[in-house]
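agent> fetching stored inputs for the zinc ion docking request
agent> found them:
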Amino acid sequence: MADIMIHRGSSQIGGCCTQISTGESRILIDFGANLPGTDQNAGIKDSEMFQKVFGSAGKSAVLFTHYHGDHFGLFKEIPDDVPMYIGPMAKDILRIFVPYMDSGTGRKGLPVVERMRTYGAGKWITPVSGIKVLPLYVDHSALDSYMFYIRVSGKSLLYYWRFSGAWHRGPEGTLRAGTQDICARAGGYPDYRGYHAQPFGRSKESAC
Ligand SMILES: [Zn+2]
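agent> prediction call returned; pasting tokens
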């Protein structure tokens, strides 16, 4: 039995964290900070996210879609025994700008970045037992950004978070092919208003 839980992001842009689990193991997609200036009035503050997501954690892995702060900004909170994955160029970029961002702060993020593993476009990985993930490139203002095609508990799920005009026609064709049971998406534009988990095409969401 597959289960999708949106820890944060169903009614906002940024601060993203979505969980996909088998009941025994799970992946988390992104662990983002609230957009600058919004944390005070957010339904879930950044300081509350660790307890909400990792307070009763089972076996986990975290996959980052890209290196923008609203998708990866809480990375220092992730426990040491939780594997993290990100694109190879995105990791190199983090190696440069995380030390810069950390200047003057006591808690350094570079050791956490070095702990991140990398995935490759079009190459399947199995971050936790029972969940297979195929990273696919996404056009975005951050280099080396990805969406994920996921196989879990006999179901297929396309997790996407960017739906720009230039990008729209290609993935739409993929979606129409009906090879996935569920689509979960995060909006980057106001009209999408954050995450949605929705059936698409030959949906079998009730079985998930
Ligand atoms: Zn972004």
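agent> quick read of the result: The two ends are 6 Å apart (CA to CA).
agent> awaiting further instructions
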